[in-house]
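Can't paste images in this forum, so I'm doing it all in text. The chain is below; anyone willing to post the predicted structure tokens underneath?
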Amino acid sequence: MSRVDAGIFCLDGFRRGPEMDPGTAFEIGYMFALGKALSAWTKDTREYPERVRSFFADTFGLRLAVGERSGSGARSGALRDPDGTLVHSVGCYQNAMIDIGIEFSGGIIEADSDWRAAFNRATSRLATILGTAAGRRLRA
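Text version of the structure:
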């Protein structure tokens, strides 16, 4: 990862769960820390909270709970899983730290039920980022 200019990542759920592969999350964070260009794709077009909601319903027959927003601690929402853990990252495909890290690198997360379409758009975005960076280096 240290020797490449960029990375493209699949954010699909790992082992039929709502979360991406933890190794991929590590790779994204590592490459972000190195200042690499990032882009990602997923065939699951639902926002993260909906992924979590569906996972608990389909796997365990359990529902998420909607409570009041906390006055202290985690305050980014009121949706909780059956264990009481906050389900956040509304508007994101995965945990907001993943989505935001990719966006801060100049990349984008493409979502399409046709994974090839999502992958192609994500790679096109990455090519644009790399082309722009190469152009800056040539002019410098």
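Helices lie at 22-33, 48-60, 96-104, 115-139. The chain has two domains: 1-47+92-140, 49-88.
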